[in-house]
Amino acid sequence: MIDPLHYESTLRLGCFLAVLVLMMGWEWRQPRRLLSLPRARRWPANLGVVAVDTVVLRLVFPVLAVGAAGLAEAKSWGLFHVLDVPFGLAFVASLLLLDLTIYAQHVLFHKLPLLWRLHRMHHTDLDFDVTTALRFHPLEIVLSMLIKLAVVVLLGTPPLAVLLFEVILNATAMFNHGNVRLPLKLDRALRWVLVTPDMHRVHHSARPEETDSNFGFNLPWWDRLFGTYRDQPRDGHAGMTIGLEYFRDRRATTLTGLLAQPFLNERRPVT
């Protein structure tokens, strides 16, 4: 039997490229909104950040999430090992708890000013498409990985569950950042089990009250459960302004500008 853990990098890269190309093609054929800027102005910086993030993670961490889960399994670390939780239950619980962690982390990065400085780079994209899903500052990526490693070890998450979660989260993030059109009835039904592009696009509105809603990347249940769900943007999907009101110049579209954003003094309006 083939062990998918031995092919982690290949599986993750293959899934990433497949979903990225699929979403780019879907956006080209059925766009939800007209883009305000040419792709050639935004994509080099957005894709360049992915390369920077990948290098930084490899330099900072000797092992990433799947490796940490393997170490915890070998050492019998974590709650699931201490309680001798059956594999199937631990597997499902891990997927749910990891997703809840990502939701809670996302809320925290919005609420704490220092963390918002790191996260706001994701929100300064002046358009919303699949490459927006890749636009995270390397300092945020490092902190996010630290949180993920801690949760994985404390829970004793099965390595296979971590691998599946990473692949699903990456794929759904690119899906729900897509500038794609779904039939309204399908969107209504789908957003009960999965964050859709129309649901997540509200989160990228320039209106602060809309930016602070719809925090989920994968499962929509946490937003509904904790009262952060917003159904539609006030100005409609075609009329809403994407981004932040105080970052609308070249600093939002160049790689050096993106990397410098946490160190600039623009302050978020108080809501």
Give helix % range.
55-70%
Summarize the helix and strand pattern as letters.
HHHHHHHHHHHHHH
Number of helix segments? 14
Q: What characteristic shape results from the CA principal axes?
A: globular
Please report which band the strand proportion falls in: under 5%, 5-15%, 15-25%, 25-35%, 35-45% or over 45%: under 5%
Which stretches are low in confidence, meaning pLDDT under 50 for 5 or more residues running? none
TL;DR?
The protein is an all-alpha fold and about 270 residues long. It contains 14 helices and no strands. It has helices at about 10-30, 40-60, 65-75, 80, 85-110, 115-125, 140-155, 160-175, 185-190, 195-200, 210, 220-225, 235-240, 255-260.
Structure description:
There is one protein chain. The protein is mainly α. The chain has one domain. Helix 1 packs parallel to helix 8, helix 2 packs across helix 7 and helix 5 crosses helix 6. The chain contains 14 helices and no strands.
Give short descriptive properties of this protein.
271 residues, mainly alpha, 14 helices
